[in-house]
Design goal:
mainly beta, 272 residues, carbohydrate binding, globular, disordered N terminus, seven-stranded antiparallel beta sheet, Beta-galactosidase, Chain A, domain 5
Amino acid sequence: MTRFLLLFLLPLLAGGGAIAIENDGFRATFADPSDEALGFRFFRAGWVRGLYPAAGETSLFHTRTLFDYHPAFGCAQEFLPDLPLASGDRLKPGVGIFRLHPKDYFRSRPVRSFPWEWSIRDRSLIAHQSCPELEGYAYELSITVTAGKNMLVWKQQLTNTGTRRIDGQVYLHPFFATRDGFAGWWYSLDGTPHSVADAPESQSVENGQAQAAAGTDQFTVNITSCPPFRRRDFWRNQSNAFAVEPYIPVSLAPGETRIWKWFLALTRFQKQ
């Protein structure tokens, strides 16, 4: 089995969060799906802002945006590629309609957001979004995020209710918080020795498991999916953030439904 191991130290201090689920192992806070400041890229529901181990005051994810031109924090999902409309605008499942910036894609802005209905029940965040018919595109998207035993589980269901195919992929983007300069982080691929070398930007895999360790108390975060992800990207900025991003293909003919899950297991890291 393909593996990816990272070590992160000294994540950011925790911020507050009114929307939260928790158990004996951790507490997860969420961005407000109705917040228009969340931008055009990521699913607004199920967007984890912070993940706090039990009795801890620090989040394993950045709780504040890393960039000033679009929100980038926590652990979020994105659908790619965008679905083109005749006006030149784009449809982004999980968000709504956005308009491309003439020079910089990442500075694009939403022009019409589709609302989310959501609630907290039984240690789960449950949310639903409907996309009305737009030039043959239409969908129903449901998300449930559950605090299991030492595990955060996202379950998504996407139904194509339109007359055009929806072809693309979804990926999970965890913005892990790390120490400045990345001193101390490491990773291992396919059982190779631990390394502090630069990670490759992208890999295709038959099936996968991504693992990461983070926090002052050193926790291991294991990211897996169902179905198994087929690609993973590695990303980092130059100081205090790193990500491993698993991708799952999601293509639907009219009337079809797809279900996928992300599993993020949190365990205390044991040095070998």
